[in-house]
Specification:
50% helix; Beta-Lactamase; Hypothetical protein af1432; disordered C terminus
């Protein structure tokens, strides 16, 4: 094996270049560029014409371990597969470390180097004994290339486990002729391999932590969605609506949002915030989250009221029968007016039952006349077996049946609103890294209002970031169009945007973002992905309340 044939100054230069490459490896965040930096650095230090970077893949479920081509480079053939170049795909088959019978695949030089964790230096692939270079020769025949000198080294991580391998081909001397890799080449490559393994391991650890954290946020969101069929896939759909609007707004120069620009890291922080925006609902009592009817607690108490009304109906029927029996005993028939009065009273109770059943289902608005009727019915009484008079509706039932919007009382609504306090408290306790430190602010503001009358902090528009205001629009839009809410039908786009427009006029939602949402048809992108076809109706955008793009075209 040739020893060093380079001058001292050249060797110093190569060592300095090795240090520079090491610094670049430690700073690189892009996985593709990192791989390229490793292979290009290895080729540069050893003057190799070509090279391959393999990644070791463990597939326990298949009981397999193999080397996968990550990068393939060849200057003579102008080949640049993998990394930032053309994708490798299936151009090169994986190299198994073990054969079908379970024996080590020691005939393939790269597999041998990994299996035995040693560097292999080959003078000429066509004359070397002990390895199978049939694939190399087939490649040469196909391309006209001549593979000769070869240097293969495994890359080990901090746990002394092989994670990859570098294979260099055809070292070039100063005259461009193919030469043999030297001891100096092996030492430099060994040093680079150590630094490369650290960089790859760090990148893998970062990617694994990233994946773990992302999966954790998704699991939390899915758990909250599973906790409440009433909100369905809310936590999974809000991120879509949020990012659609954020991407449309960022760098758009749209009036009122001229300076709004989000980097990739900021967009990712917003995505995480969107997934975590309702995490505080974990501590919200199920009977509040799941309250699909006004009288629902652990069970729907309309059943109890039905039983009471049934008692009243039966009392009327019994009174009628008793009157008829008394009349028959005296040889008469029941007085017509008396019979009619009893029948009317019975029908009154039956109508009351149907009314209360309907009232028990929440809606967008309950008018005063229905509230008055509930109040009037609460004055009715029934008689218990002990002969005691009891009200048809107790105070709690009266309060619940008098709810004007939805199914929650004020106290229950406060419990629901408190999920934002819990969300912020939970997120504030997490030690977010620098690029995610805005997550609590983004996630904690989607129930604030532009006029400061929202919750939990009563922030005004000027006190909120644009991403937090974006989440407010996304949250409302998803909730209005959601098909799972039992107390309302899934709204069509026309009705949804009408309501959102009025919320803009009432200083609830941000006007600039709403104008962008409508004008750029962000709502349609979401609708095509998540809404039922019957919800996507036609309407005149210009007639929407709160939509006035001319207002925001200032400056």
């Amino acid at each position: 094996m040739p020893t060093s044939a380079v001058s001292h100054s050249e060797m110093v230069h190569r060592v300095q270049r090795l240090n520079d490459i090491g610094v670049a490896l430690s700073a690189e965040q892009n996985a593709d560029v990192l791989l390229e930096t490793i292979l290009l650095g290895a080729r540069e230090l050893t003057c190799a014409d070509a090279g391959t970077l393999y990644m070791l893949v463990d597939a326990p479920e298949q009981h397999k371990r193999f080397l996968r081509f990550a990068l393939v480079q060849n200057d003579t053939l102008n080949i640049h597969f993998g990394g930032t170049g053309e994708t490798v795909n299936n151009k090169f088959p994986d190299l198994p470390l073990y054969l079908a019978d379970g024996t080590p695949n020691e005939r393939m030089v790269a597999a041998y180097a990994v299996l035995h964790e040693k560097t292999i230096n080959i003078t000429d692939a066509y004359t070397e004994d002990g390895f199978d270079f049939q694939g190399t020769r087939q490649f040469d025949t196909k391309t006209g290339y001549r593979s000769q000198s070869m240097l293969v080294i495994p890359l080990k991580n901090h746990e002394n486990e092989v994670i990859a391998a570098i294979q260099l081909l055809n070292k070039k001397d100063k005259n461009g002729r193919t030469a043999v890799f030297t001891d100096d080449d092996m030492q430099l490559l060994s040093s680079l391999a150590s630094q490369a393994a650290i960089a790859l391991t760090n990148r893998q650890l970062i990617d694994d932590l990233h994946t773990l954290f992302e999966s954790f946020t998704h699991v939390i969101a899915s758990a909250i969605d599973a906790k409440s069929p009433q909100t369905g896939a809310h936590c999974r759909r809000v991120p879509d609506a949020t990012l659609m609007l954020a991407r449309a707004a960022s760098h758009s120069g749209y009036p009122g949002l001229e300076d709004f620009k989000m980097s990739k890291a900021e967009m990712y922080a917003l995505e995480i915030a969107a997934w975590m925006h309702d995490c505080g609902k974990i501590v919200t009592p199920p009977h509040v989250i799941e309250k699909s009817k006004k009288l629902e607690t652990i069970c729907d108490r309309i059943i109890t009221i039905e039983a009471r009304l049934e008692v009243l109906v039966r009392e009327q029927r019994i009174a009628k029968l008793e009157a008829e029996v008394a009349a028959l005993k005296s040889g008469q028939t029941i007085n017509a007016s008396r019979a009619e009065a009893l029948a009317e009273q019975e029908q009154f109770f039956l109508d009351a039952l149907e009314f209360l059943r309907a009232t028990n289902t929440g809606g967008e608005f309950m008018p005063d006349e229905k509230i008055d009727r509930v109040q009037s019915l609460s004055q009715l009484h029934y008689t218990t077996l002990e002969g005691n008079l009891q009200p048809l509706l107790n105070a709690d039932e009266l309060e619940n049946l008098s709810i004007r919007r939805g199914t929650l009382t004020e106290a229950e609504r406060q419990i629901m609103n408190d999920h934002m306090v819990h969300t912020i408290n939970m997120l504030d306790q997490l030690p977010f890294p620098k690029h995610l430190r805005q997550v609590p602010e983004y996630a904690g503001g989607h129930h604030e209002r532009m006029d400061g009358n929202g919750y939990p902090k009563g922030l005004t528009r000027d006190q909120m970031s644009v991403p937090a205001r974006i989440m407010g629009i996304a949250d409302v839009f998803e909730a209005l169009t959601a098909p799972e809410r039992s107390y309302k039908e899934a709204m069509p786009l026309s009705q949804t945007l009408q309501i959102m427009g009025r919320m803009v006029e009432n200083h609830h939602l941000d006007p600039d973002l709403f104008n962008l949402f409508v004008e750029k048809k962000v709502y349609m992108s979401y609708a095509k992905k998540h809404l039922n076809p019957e919800q996507i109706d036609e309407f005149n955008v210009a007639l929407l309340p709160g939509f006035n793009p001319q207002v925001t075209k200032r400056g």
